[in-house]
Structure formats: C-alpha cells, structure tokens
Amino acid sequence: MSEVSMEKIISLCKRRGFIFQGSEIYGGLAGTWDYGPYGIELKNNIKQLWWRMFVQDRDDMVGLDAAILMNPRAWEASGHVSGFSDPLVECKKCKKRFRADHVGDKCPECEGEFGAVRQFNMMFKTQIGATEDESSVTYLRPETAGGIFVNFKNVVDSVHPKMPFGIGQIGKAFRNEIAPRDFIFRVRELEQMEIEYFVRAEEWEKSFEEWRQNVHAFIDATGIKSEGVHELDVAPEDLAHYSKRTIDFEFDFPFGRKELFGLAYRTDFDLSAHSAASGAKLVIQDEEGKPPFTPHVIEPSFGVDRTVLAVLASAYTEDELGGEPRAYLRFNKTVAPIKAAVFPLLKNKPELVEKAREVYLMLKKTTPQIMWDDNGNIGKRYRRQDEIGTPVCITIDFDTLGENPSLKDTVTVRDRDTGEQKRVAIGELTDIIS
Ligand code: ATP
Fold this sequence. Notes:
With 434 residues, the protein is of the alpha+beta class. The protein has helices at residues 6-15, 37-56, 72-77, 80-83, 145-150, 152-159, 204-222, 269-278, 304-315, 350-366, 378-388, 398-401, 429-433; strands spanning 19-21, 33-35, 61-64, 85-90, 97-99, 118-121, 125-127, 137-139, 165-174, 189-199, 229-233, 245-253, 256-265, 296-303, 316-321, 324-329, 340-344, 370-372, 392-396, 410-415, 421-425. The protein folds into 2 domains: 6-79 and 140-313, BirA Bifunctional Protein, domain 2, CATH 3.30.930; 338-433, Rossmann fold (3-Layer(aba) Sandwich).
C-alpha cells in the first residue's frame, strides 16, 4: 500500500469539517474527538451500511438499543469489574504512564526506569442518583455487548427467534485508555457495532466461518482496501479463558498494522454467567420434549471509529490532474458523505441559479446528501468536492437553458477520480448518483 501520512489525513479532516479535536477551544480532552458536518455523514453511512447488511437484510438477526448505564451487577457477572484492565507502568523519572505491553524496558520519553506493573481497570465509574455511597456506583459501559446479553430473555420472549439467530447493536462505549493515541484509533469515548450470534454448541465452527466471511464482505462494502487487511488467529495461550477461538482482523494503518475488528467464539460463558448471577433462565427450548439449553455465542465486534479511520486511509489519494497536484478522498458511493454537488456555472445569473436550484431540489428528494455549491470559481468548487470525496459534480450552464437547442436540459457531470466531464440529460441524473 502506498504510504499515507496521518498528518495529512488529520489536517484534511480538520480543514474540511470531518473530525475535530474534542473540546478544542478549551485545549482539548485527551481521547475524545468530535465529528463535524462531513464526518457525521460518513460515520452514519458506515453505521447504516452495517445495520442494513447485518440486521435489516437478514431474517436471522434483530436489532437492539440498550441503555449505556447498566446495573453494576451485570459488569461483575461479566468479569469486567475484576478483569477489564490493562497493565500500567509509570516512569519513575517523568511520571508518564504507559501500557506495559506497548513499551520496552525504558521510558520512551526520557529513558527513565519503570516502576512495578499494576493492573488498571479501564471502566469509567460514575454515580447514580444523589447519594454518594457505594450502592450508587455504576459504570459507563466499556462495550455494547453487555446490553445484548442482559436483553437475551426479553428478545426471546417477545419475538421468538428461531435458532440460530443474532442480536445486533450500535452504540457508544467508554474505556479509560491509559494512552489514547493515533487520532480516532484509540479513544476513550468510542462507538461499536456488535453482534452476539447464538448457536448450538456443535454449530460453532460453521457459524464462525460464516461470520469470518461476513466480516470481509463488510470490509469490501466500505471501500477499505482489502490488501491492507490481515487475519491474526490469536494463539491459544493468548485467548481469553472463555474463548476457544478469536481472530483479530488487522489493518495496515499509516502508523502500523493494528486491530480493526475482532471475531470471537465465546462459548456459553456470558449467558451462563449472567444466568448464575441474576437468577434468570437464559436458555432456549425450541423442541418440545427436549430439555432447554444455553446457546453458545459467536461475537463479531466492529469499532465504528476504527472503520472511519480505515476508510479514510484507504480513500486518501494523491495524484496530478491537469498538471496540478491534488489530494482527494476516493470514497465509494455508499460511504461518501455527499453523493453529488450541484453548481450553477455563474452565481450572478438568476436564470442559471434558478435552473440549478430546480435540479438540486429534484435530486434531493430521493437522495438527501446532495450539496449546493456556488462559492468561488468552478475549479475551486471541484477542488473542495474532491477533498470531501464527492463522486460527481453537476454543472448547470447556458446550454442547459437551451442556448444550444440540441443540448437543452442537459448538464455536465464531472467524475471525481478521472476529472472527465460528460454531457447527460437531467433525466439520467438520478441513476448516476444512486
Ligand atoms: P485493543 O487491543 O486495540 O485495545 P481490544 O482487543 O481491547 O482492542 P475489543 O475489546 O475486542 O478491543 O473491542 C472490539 C472493537 O472495538 C475493536 O476491534 C475496535 O474496533 C474497537 N475498539 C476497542 N477499543 C477501542 C478504542 N479505545 N478506541 C477505538 N476503538 C476501539
């Protein structure tokens, strides 16, 4: 893959309104980022693509939106209170803290010695209600999966899914990362798209393989460069105690090969643990006369922010167009924040503006993500749209109005990647942009 620098991606994201530092005017807040006007469109397109592909288009999946705040007993049962921690070391000299598994023997900042390694729990604690005693402590969820397991019985009792089936959820999660870094790769407030897919114990390998392929299908649909994606089968000695197999899907980010998504076979660990701790019967009985059983779970887990970053890194392209160097985002149509931009050739000619407005409003009816742009000259508008990754620009000129009668009601459509322009009838535009 060609080298793309993070500085260039971060600077384009800020300059063009994709992603800003969290609380920037106050000096920022480490590990938080805010999505701007185009960033939110890109992120929503990615989430909608996932939801459509894994929830709406399948008849073995349903969706859920559970509360971020949960009864703390759920996090005790899942093992997060005792075990959701990273090894922390502190430099004796400069006092900076690092994740022990991310550094060597000496402080990377000042070469100082490290103190002893200790476990640091990454859950954000918070207080529920007005009293400050222990009973009111809870946590911001560190993953969305917990909300799925605690609603297993509700979903089974209300919609009666047939085995095997899955529950999908998209939402925020919070992790007090020791060292947030690499832009939106490792943040403290993140968003996840997670699936718990419930199978019979003997079906797990087949289902695991299906989900492995589904993860690749999603990667392809987002436009993430597949040659940059690598599967890492987690070695048996590194597996969580309840997992029999885990694959990390790694991506060649500009700062190195790092985890993008995960796929884990979690056995019946979660349902059994929540069943034991809550007393609820988290089982399935789908054949009369047969005993109820606890399903096993395949868990594909996708970070939204890491997807956005991998999509940006895959789309970022530098080339030369008309003898000028340019940098642009080569998004596919599905994820592009703006599907097409509509321009009047000149903004001071009312008849051009009126016709362009008509075309703009017509397209917006079926595709809301259409942008109006009449700022500066055409060259500047193209540059701006290339940078935000708009696949096509549509210009309304005097020929559209009938100056050349044979071209009446046609417009120029300019392709982002090639810069080529062609004349098409207004009636064809809806097909071109969809
Ligand atoms: P890492 O080893 O990078 O800390 P993890 O193995 O702890 O990640 P999981 O607990 O498997 O990650 O979380 C599932 C997914 O959530 C990850 O594959 C990733 O896409 C995303 N994710 C996890 N932690 C973060 C974070 N701090 N910032 C952004 N995304 C994250």
